[in-house]
Structure formats: structure tokens, C-alpha cells
Amino acid sequence: MRINVTVSDGTKIAVRGFGGTGRTILLLHGLMGRASTWWRVSRWLADYGRVVGVDARGHGDSPATGAWRTERFVADLVEVIEALELAPVVVIGHSMGGLHGWELAALRPDLVSALVVEDMAPDHRGRTPESWTAWFAAMPPAFPSVAAVRDAFGWPWPSVGDYLAECVREGPDGYRLLTDPTEAGRIAAEWGERDFWPSVRQLRCPTLLLEAAESPIASAQMAEMSRVIPGARHERIPDTGHLLHDDAPDRYRKLVTEFLELALPAP
Question: Domain containing 67 — which CATH number?
Fold first, then answer.
């Protein structure tokens, strides 16, 4: 199932259903991603509820209409949840999706029953996306095949190549990324100017924090998040990059399913 929800500024936000019944599990992807990057995870999550993913604006099938502010992304989620009567939802977010998930839970605790955040930190002040955008700028604008996308982005972590291979569309000149890296850089630039700790301190729902040991993104801040959020559980997963749900799928599944079974009543 795939539908569009028109939000208050007229943008059509793409929403994808992955199956399952009962309470809603809302999947939020990372920067440059799309809902379908969660496909493998959604297969077993469907045993725990109705699994729904959102393409953030500027990603997947949701058009790139700014402004690129976290508040706008979160407003989109509120409007999607309310329009489709999904609440209360279990939010599972990776990176950017984790940020949007905890901002949603802080702003509207009535909409979120539990939260899983994968490899994201509240404070990136002083960081810039310049090296990241330069990496993308060095790549060709179009690729001759999906395999070429995997090869281009899959070193040193093959999971990144697989992730971005899911985020392209074929056109007359080859396969192009669905998200403009320049626009993605503007989204990430906002994180380097802001402190999101105030929202973290407001969280009261059951929370699982998963940190990738070989990723620089969380920068040990997730351990501090676990001390700030009442009852939160923090796990640092060895030998994983930023996409830890792909780098350690069995460990990720075990931690998330244990969390769901302990934190929530049966659907």
C-alpha cells in the first residue's frame, strides 16, 4: 500500500504500508533514504503491529519543498499520523529519522507510545556537511546500473551502497539519486547550528537507544541521552557502521523485539 497525504503547506507526503495488524509501528528513514530502505526490517516487525513508513519531504516519492527545518519535518509526521488515524505509534527512526522521532515524541507525547533511535546525537554544533557533500559531488550525476550505485557508495561499508541503491530512479541517462545531495546538505547544515537536548530532556515514553560503534555520528552522546531519558536503554553495537540495522541485523532484531515485548502490551 502506498498513498499520499497532503499536508498543510500543500506538499504530498508519500506513505507506504508494509503489512501487519494492530498498533502502528512508524518507520522513519535517514538522510538520503526512503521508506523502502526499511523493507528487510519490516518483514519481522509486521509480527508486532501494522508497519508504516514515511518518505520525508525531499526523499523518495515526497517532493523537495522546503524550508529545511526540523520543525517542518515533524509537522509533516503529526499531520500524517492524524490524517491516517495511526496514533499512538511506536516510532523507529534511523539517524535523521531518529531526530524527527524524538522531536515528535517531545512535541506530541500523545501520539507516541514508544521510541527507538538508531545512531543519532542531539548536538552537532560546529560540524558542517562539507566533506559529506564533497563526497557526493565527486560522484557522477547518473549511474549506468543499480550495481554501479552499490559499487560507488559501498566502501568501506557495503550497507551504505545497498541503502543508496534503494534510493535511485532510472531515467534516460541512467540511475539518479532521488534526493539531491545539495538539498540533503542543507538539511544536515541545520543540525550543525542547533542543540536538540531540550527536546531529549522532555521524553517520557519507553526509549531504546542504539549506537553504532564504528560511526562518528552519535559521538558518545547516546550514553548521555540514556541518563537523561527516564528508564531509557542504551546499547552500543560493536563492528557496526551508521546503518547498524543492516550491519548487525540479527543483533538489531533481538534488541528491538525484546524492547517491544517489554515496553508495550500485546497488540
Answer: 3.40.50.1820
